């Protein structure tokens, strides 16, 4: 409990705060921290992306793919083109859950001869 203010001095804001007021402030602060951020999310691609030919910037439109992961995809496809979403499981930092998340956004045309080099 806050101590009484010194004689001749007005109570400060913490000295005036009641338990109910402190609880209300805590709840309001917590509620604000739970609000969704207003930062613009990365837009999803308007079409399916061929991971064998897409530029890094285009790969970064895929959900969960940032610059590092896009670079891993580009480096890996030079060794062997991807033929299905499960082939992406061989790329560092991509596991089964990421493959599942990316699969609806990917296409694998039969002719993958034109693979972009990093």
Describe what this molecule looks like in 3D.
This protein is an all-alpha fold. The protein has a domain at 40-118: Photosystem II 12 kDa extrinsic protein (DNA polymerase, domain 1). Helices cover 36% and strands 0% of the residues. Residues 32-39 and 114-118 have low confidence and may be disordered.
Distance between the termini: 65 Å
Unreliable stretches covering 5 or more consecutive residues: 32-39, 114-118
Mean pLDDT: 78
Superfamily at the CATH H level of the domain at 40-118?
Photosystem II 12 kDa extrinsic protein
Helix content: 25-40%
How many separate helices? Answer: 5
Shape: rod-shaped
CATH C-level of the domain at 40-118: Mainly Alpha
CATH architecture of the domain at 40-118: Orthogonal Bundle
* Cα gyration radius (Å): 27 Å
- Looking at the structure, the CATH topology of the domain at 40-118 is DNA polymerase, domain 1
SSE string: HHHHH
Q: Report the structural category.
A: mainly alpha
Total number of β-strand segments? Answer: 0
Could you give the topology of this structure?
Layout: H1 13-16, H2 19-33, H3 56-59, H4 67-79, H5 96-102
Quick rundown:
This protein is mainly alpha-helical and 118 residues long. The chain has a domain at 40-118: Orthogonal Bundle (DNA polymerase, domain 1), CATH 1.10.150.
Summary tags:
118 residues, mainly alpha, DNA polymerase, domain 1, 5 helices, rod-shaped, disordered C terminus
